[in-house]
Amino acid sequence: MKLKHLFTAAVLALAITVPAFAEEETPLGKEMEKASKALKAIGRAQKEGKVTKDLASKVADIKAAFEAAAKLEPAKTKDVPAADKAKFLADYKAAMEASIKELDALKAAVEAEKADEVGKILEKLNAGKKDGHKAFKAD
Length: 139
Ligand code: HEM
Fold this sequence. Notes:
The protein has about 140 residues and is mainly alpha-helical.
């Protein structure tokens, strides 16, 4: 009986600590969250056909977050062999910079209130996210 309780306690302890570890956020992850929040607001407005100039401030939020993210190193860098680290980091920076460039187009489309164009750029940003996460995010 006692052993059963011990087992239950151990399982409970694991259930509590495992997600806590998994959700530990890095400074880079935090910048990504900020970008994600602002992008979602633009995505919602786009779907509802409410693309207005006011969204330019959200684009600026994404840009600030991505610029900060570009200066940070992905957590996965520590798992990359020493010989490949410089290339890994240069590739990461180039990919972030490509996304930052897309934001200039997004800003122009938002300011021109061109909802279709905004939709297309959001798709490109999402493709960049997918590729970026595949290459640079730890599993
Ligand atoms: C639309 C663009 C993007 C959005 C909305 C986005 C969103 C996020 C979010 C919400 C996280 C934290 C949660 C999680 O781990 O899933 C994250 C993590 C991460 N993202 Fe992005 N992301 C975007 C683009 C990119 C790009 C282009 C790259 C790489 C060039 C990238 C690299 C990473 C990395 C490396 C992490 C893990 C954090 C760390 O290593 O410290 N993301 N992203």
